[in-house]
Amino acid sequence: MSAPIDESQASSIADARAGSDLDSILATPGDALLLDALRRRATVSVRRIRDDFVEVHTPHHVLGYVRHERHGFTALRGDDPAWATPIGSYASESLAIEALRMRRG
Predict the structure, then answer these.
(1) What is the pLDDT of residues 51-60, one digit of tens each?
(2) Where are the alpha helices (DSSP H) in 1-61?
(3) pLDDT in tens, 40-75
(4) SS3 breakdown of the chain: % helix, strand, coil, rounded to 5?
(5) How far is CA 85 from CA 28, 43, 63, 79, in A?
(6) Which one of 44, 54, 59, 64 counts the least CB within 10 Å of its CB?
(7) Cβ burial 18-47 (10 Å sphere, 16+ → b, else e)
(8) 21: closest CA among 36, 43, 1?
């Protein structure tokens, strides 16, 4: 039988893991690794434009859009929906949003 973990213990474990991950990334040379670490920690927000269309953005700029289609969700990279480039099709909206958040370039 396992005992429940209280929130203070869980958060301290997560904080310790996050600190050790960051230390190992910063110890490894290369801008690419540092950028990947920053992308993983980036927070994004969504704004529902229509029932089938969502804008994904950070506080500073628009990352892209997610469009609901018949058999899934398409992630569109770019700040203008008319000129956005499709980067992939995904089974759920959250996966498409995550793809935009992690996408390089």
Answers:
(1) 999 999 988 8
(2) 7-27, 31-41
(3) 666 888 999 999 999 999 888 889 999 999 889 999
(4) 40, 30, 30
(5) 33, 22, 11, 10
(6) 59
(7) eeeeeeeeeeeeeeeeeeebeeeeeeeebe
(8) 36
